[in-house]
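Quick log. Single chain, no ligands specified.
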Amino acid sequence: MPPLPLSQEPQDTSDVAMARRIAGGDRAELTRLMRKHNQRLFRTARSILKDDAEAEDAVQEGYLSAIGAMGEFRGGATLATWLVRIVANEALGRLRKRARSADVIRLAGTTGDIGDLPEIDMRDASQVPPEQAALRAETRRLLESRIDALPEAFRIVFVLRAVEEMSVEEVAASLGLAPATVRTRHFRAKGLLRESLAREIDVSLQDAFAFAGARCDRIVAGVLSRLSPPA
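-> predicted structure:
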């Protein structure tokens, strides 16, 4: 798959200025850039690779590629869009190496396409009661596993639209897609995710308020202990 082309967007002079400072060796500016975009870029790579460690590596390699080309940045796209595209290409390259015989993600094109999730709460976990934190963690694991199961072409669009809350236009620019394709894939992804979660809930309902085992034994023993001894 060829590299994703840079789309044309209005020039962002502040982005150009930041890029020039980073190209000139301004480490403080580079640090600000990374802290600003790390989460989005990780989620981009993770949506393609479905592996946390490899996604981190892809983001790091993407940054190194971006830094090397920072002096050539002219604002044809926003810096955020440019970085997403670089990291997506890095992740796609890793995916291609991982499975050369498998089809890589088809991000471009408008044919062949097979409520929103809230953004994960990133507040200090120490402020959340342990029981609530455990429930959130379990819910997050369930959502992440179901998002991972989405078809590849839909997954990255869903992550950028629903999780990162990027606009249709931003996602289209980042992935080289038509806005209509972004809308279609996001809509289909949400439908598939709802169906998957509904099936999980249906199965889990059968186990709700489980009674057999220790609880049943306690009730039997409690009642028997309160009865008069048998004659």
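Residues 13-98 form a domain with the Rna Polymerase Sigma Factor; Chain: A fold (CATH 1.10.1740.10).
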